[in-house]
Design the sequence.
């Protein structure tokens, strides 16, 4: 199919969803698909959605004009195309499932036969980015470095390639999701086993040099059909190469790049988007040698991803919505900035805060499961925290995980055990590092074991040392203020001081130590912004906002996805907020999951991207003075807050008391 060259006004657009949630492909595609539908509806274009996941917001009857709760396979989609006769197709909003299905439909001639035009990035470009050999060849044309690698289709070819490159090597799967089958390979026996498993699932694998200790960065790029392009956000993996981005703690914007390095990587990412003629959104992943700044391009996704959902929520720039508009032929300067409502979308966000994403695993629910993490995803969800210092955001994110001590039930208790977990990464590596430093562990030793940038390790060490100080000294107002700026929760401070959470809270309030409400405006205050996207921080002296004019109703979201608590509770929260607004109420959502529709700031009158904890809900309630709180639509995390909030004087649900 040919790429559009002018503004295109199809009568009907078919959107392929991602189907059932799975590791590596979850609620982020409900968010991206929902935003795409909103963008098309704004243009009065009829939308047809295929997605069998009934728990998603995008399958609500008020979004797409026609919803097919049908399997996302070739035969079914072909039948729906025959029946609905869409003019165009969007592939980039349903994850790897939609992308691979689109490639199948094009290859079989179905799209050509029925006159269905692929919107945005062409099928040819998508195939070039997905095929590891073609991807490498395209980058070689523009003198961009990639790891030494060989694309293979058989186990025998894989063995030959590995012997040429030399062990250890990295095995990567083509046309795959969440690092399926990938990983570090140290010998031929391991390669035979892993290559066989990978090539059973996908048609192609890549054998490449292993970049031990290199740091990983990612750039989210948007580009329109005229070649205008922007780097919306860059992100940095706390973990070095060898840990999948979905398995790593991620910080945005990147903290350890020099400006020279940032400009180099940004320029390369924009050049790659140009080479592949991206129309819409893509992300480019880099490995950078911390010793000399040398780089390699690892891969590019020519579609929305979990990382792009994170970047969208981190910046407030609605990536999926903009990508859908660009796919219709709009130029960036023709799209309104949804934050300012005055300027256009042709700008790169400027942040006066940082975000920390931490994956959430539920490995402890599987008694025989291997806890090590690597290049193949195991996490079932993630959380995002916003702060004005790395320690504040990191500790906030740890609290949002809502795992308590459950993942630490069989936790090691010797320095040797800590060092083992730091060296061979598990889902508990962050806790191992923290405990290692509390036991007097050396920063240089931690770096040698983990290859994590010393900048991050120094902050983790400083948090551990401050905790020891809090354990040993009286909690003076100055120490309490320092602790709150460092992200310590009232609950944790109470445990360290051997008191209760309410006592810490009262002490804070007496001394005027409160968090301040700040706006995410994507512009760092450079232009006036009308945003309802809010977070709280102790690194401030005044609020950016005032309470809502009418007393609101607060809806508590679901927090991170976990086994047993997933996108269905996001659907509940979104529909509750929509109903409240339809009834003339002011609706506020509190949630901390970047994959969700509920954390789109246009789904409520105000969005607080904050932890679902007693402390933070009370902070927001004291500021907003709501009529009441709805705790019954966010799953168990929200429901567990009902009794403590009611005991603190909050009105729950229909206003009745809770006993």
Sequence:
């Amino acid at each position: 199919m040919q790429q559009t060259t002018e503004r295109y006004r199809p009568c009907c657009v078919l959107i392929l969803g991602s189907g059932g949630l799975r590791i590596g492909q979850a609620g982020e595609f409900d968010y991206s698909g929902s935003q795409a539908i909103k963008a098309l509806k704004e243009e009065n274009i009829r939308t047809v959605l295929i997605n069998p996941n009934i728990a998603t917001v995008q399958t609500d009857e008020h979004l797409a004009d026609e919803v097919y709760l049908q399997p996302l396979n070739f035969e079914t989609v072909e039948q729906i195309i025959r029946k609905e006769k869409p003019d165009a197709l969007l592939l980039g909003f349903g994850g790897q499932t939609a992308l691979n299905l689109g490639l199948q439909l094009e290859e079989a001639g179905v799209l050509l036969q029925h006159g269905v035009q692929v919107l945005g990035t062409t099928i040819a470009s998508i195939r070039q980015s997905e095929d590891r050999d073609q991807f490498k060849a395209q980058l070689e044309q523009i003198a961009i470095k990639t790891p030494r690698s060989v694309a293979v289709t058989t186990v025998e070819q894989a063995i030959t390639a590995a012997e040429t490159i030399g062990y250890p090597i990295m095995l990567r799967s083509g046309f795959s999701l969440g690092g399926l089958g990938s990983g570090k390979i140290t010998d031929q026996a391991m390669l035979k086993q892993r290559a066989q498993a990978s090539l059973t699932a996908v048609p192609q694998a890549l054998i490449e040099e292993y970049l031990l200790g290199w740091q990983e960065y990612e750039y989210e790029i948007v580009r329109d059909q005229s070649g205008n392009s922007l780097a919306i956000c860059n992100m940095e993996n706390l973990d070095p190469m060898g840990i999948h981005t979905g398995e790593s703690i991620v910080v945005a914007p990147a903290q350890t790049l020099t400006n020279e390095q940032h400009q180099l990587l940004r320029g390369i990412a924009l050049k790659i988007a140009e080479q592949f003629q991206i129309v819409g959104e893509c992300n480019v992943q880099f490995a950078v040698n911390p010793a000399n700044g040398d780089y390699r391009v690892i891969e590019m996704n020519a579609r929305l991803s979990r990382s792009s959902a994170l970047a969208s929520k981190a910046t407030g720039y609605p990536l999926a919505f903009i990508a859908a508009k660009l796919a219709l032929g709009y130029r960036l300067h023709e799209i309104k900035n949804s934050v300012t409502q005055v300027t256009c979308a042709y700008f790169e966000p400027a942040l006066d805060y940082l975000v920390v994403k931490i994956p959430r695993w539920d490995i402890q629910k599987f008694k025989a499961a291997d806890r090590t993490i690597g290049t193949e995803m195991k996490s079932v969800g993630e959380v995002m925290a916003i702060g004005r210092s790395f320690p504040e955001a990191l500790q906030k994110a740890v609290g949002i995980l809502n795992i308590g001590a459950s993942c630490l039930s069989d936790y090691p208790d010797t320095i040797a055990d800590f060092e083992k977990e730091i060296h061979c990464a598990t889902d508990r590596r962050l806790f191992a590092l923290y405990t290692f430093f509390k036991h007097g562990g050396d920063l240089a030793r931690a770096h040698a074991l983990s290859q994590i940038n010393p900048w991050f390790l120094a902050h983790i060490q400083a948090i551990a040392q401050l905790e020891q100080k809090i354990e040993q000294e009286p909690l003076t107002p100055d120490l309490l203020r320092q602790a709150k700026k460092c992200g310590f929760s009232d609950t944790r401070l109470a445990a360290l001081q051997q008191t209760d959470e309410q006592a810490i809270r009262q002490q804070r309030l007496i001394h005027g130590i409160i968090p301040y409400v700040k706006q995410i405006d994507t512009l760092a205050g450079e232009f006036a912004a009308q945003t309802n996207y809010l977070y709280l921080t102790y690194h401030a002296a005044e609020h950016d906002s005032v309470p809502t004019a009418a007393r609101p109703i607060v809806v508590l979201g679901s927090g991170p996805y976990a086994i047993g608590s997933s996108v269905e509770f996001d659907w509940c929260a979104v529909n509750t907020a929509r109903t409240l607004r339809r009834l003339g109420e002011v609706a506020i959502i509190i949630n901390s999951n970047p994959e969700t529709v509920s954390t789109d700031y246009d789904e409520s009158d105000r969005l607080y991207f904050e932890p679902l904890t007693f402390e933070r809900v009370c902070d927001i309630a004291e500021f907003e003075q709501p009529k009441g709180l709805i705790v019954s639509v966010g799953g168990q995390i929200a429901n567990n807050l009902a009794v403590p909030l009611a005991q603190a004087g909050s009105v729950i649900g229909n206003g009745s008391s809770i006993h």
Notes: The chain has 23 helices and 22 strands. The radius of gyration is 24 Å.
